Amino acid sequence: MNRIYFDNAATTALDPEVLDAMMPYLTDQFGNPSSIYSYGRETKLAVESARISVARILNAKPSEIFFTSGGTESNNTAIFSSVRDLGCTYIITSPIEHHAV
Ligand SMILES: Cc1ncc(COP(=O)(O)O)c(C=O)c1O
pTM score, two decimals? Predict the structure, then answer.
């Protein structure tokens, strides 16, 4: 019986093109981009290059692109930033929202 995966909104298979693009950073260029040594500086260049590419695709400024570790951190960043930086005074949610929200 063939199985069909319906939860691609949560996790999904990597597109082979994405895997190819990521391979150098999963194998050789794995330095911490926040560090000052050469391994890290190389990775930092790649992250900043990716930030510029994403910004271009979204017609945004690179400074408007934030990389997070996942859904919970993204939710928190969006909610807390909307209150702190945009002055939102009401947040509407519902019991069916993901529990991280
Ligand atoms: C809306 C939403 N928020 C948060 C999460 C949790 O993500 P993470 O495990 O990356 O923090 C998920 C995961 O599916 C999600 O769909």
Answer: 0.78
